[in-house]
Amino acid sequence: MRRALERPLSSPAIPPAAPRRLSGVAAMCGSGLSNQTGAAVGSLAFPVLGPLGVVAVRQYVAALVLVAVARPRLRAFTWRQWWPVLLLAAVFGTMNLTLYTAIDRVGLGLAVTLEFLGPLTVALAASRRRLDAGCAVLAAAGGVVLMRPQPSTDYAGMGLGLVAAGCWASYILLNRVVGRRIPGVQGPAAAASVSALTFLPIGVVVAVRHPPTAAAVLCAVVAGVLSSAVPYLADLRTLRTVPPQTFGLFMSVNPVLAAVVGWVVLGQGLGVPEWAGIGAVVAANAVSIATRAG
Fold first, then answer.
1. Sign of CA dihedral 220, 209, 86, 183
2. CA 147 to each of CA 39, 43, 152, 169: distance values in angstroms, whole numbers, following the listed order
3. pTM over 0.85
4. In 3-state terms, what secondary structure has residue 108?
């Protein structure tokens, strides 16, 4: 139910691509907000299920969505196609587990910002521009500010955030290999399926040791839908209507969204130094991408 916008007769006509691009931008906003809200809602189930239980449920939801969309023909895969899929599955599960454990220990905003250093490193490492070298220094400075020693510093939580960053970087590189060897999105769907099967016995053990409440299960399922299903489907739509450069630029806003959602939903406030560190990481990515015209 879209309503046409009334414009003065003297205004220039909007090109046909403009509505699609605006739709893509709206999808990007929804995807980022959904992803971070899902992580915040999932953390509400930590006292009952723990990060491990929440991640297990998220893996199940991701597999169901990806398999339903991609319908991978697993029996047709060769070993040359299977081995990067298996690595991708391992990275996928490890990335989510370390991120959610980091969220439990250091908060949503800080954990997501540390994780974001992974794709930022991949992007900057492939460049030979001096400007990108400066962006790398800026991002590193932001990371140092976020991880500065304090009496209450949780180094284990920060370390897990950095492990999640390394996993996200590996996820990007492995996705490229899988994309070249397996058509469409069958590869990621197969990886999600393998990861879900791996987490199946883990979920059973968690459920036996810590009997879940209906509220906790609901929070975990909502986290899976908002952080896996919605972003995946939204990103598919976005990449068809928005240039990759614009998509990458908007991705840099995710740490800010995570900090805001963590504050609003979970009451996880941040001080001026933390906001400065997040701002440095976001600015490094934004400047690097925005200056790659053409």
1. negative
2. 22, 22, 11, 20
3. no
4. helix
Residues 6+ apart with CB under 8 A from 248: 123, 285, 289
Establish how many alpha carbons lie within 13 A of residue 250's alpha carbon, considering only the half-sphere containing its beta carbon. Answer: 18
Q: DSSP class of residue 94? A: H
**CA-based R_g, the chain, Å:** 20
Q: Which residues contact 139 (CB under 8 A, 6 or more apart)?
A: 117, 120, 124, 280, 281, 284, 285
Q: Supply the DSSP symbol for 12.
A: P
The closest alpha carbon to 218, from 42, 59, 97, belongs to 42
Residue pLDDT, tens place only, 211-261: 889 999 999 999 989 988 888 777 766 766 666 666 666 777 888 889 999
Give the separation between CA 239 and CA 36, rounded to whole angstroms.
20
> What is the phi/psi pair of residue 271, to 5°?
-85, 180
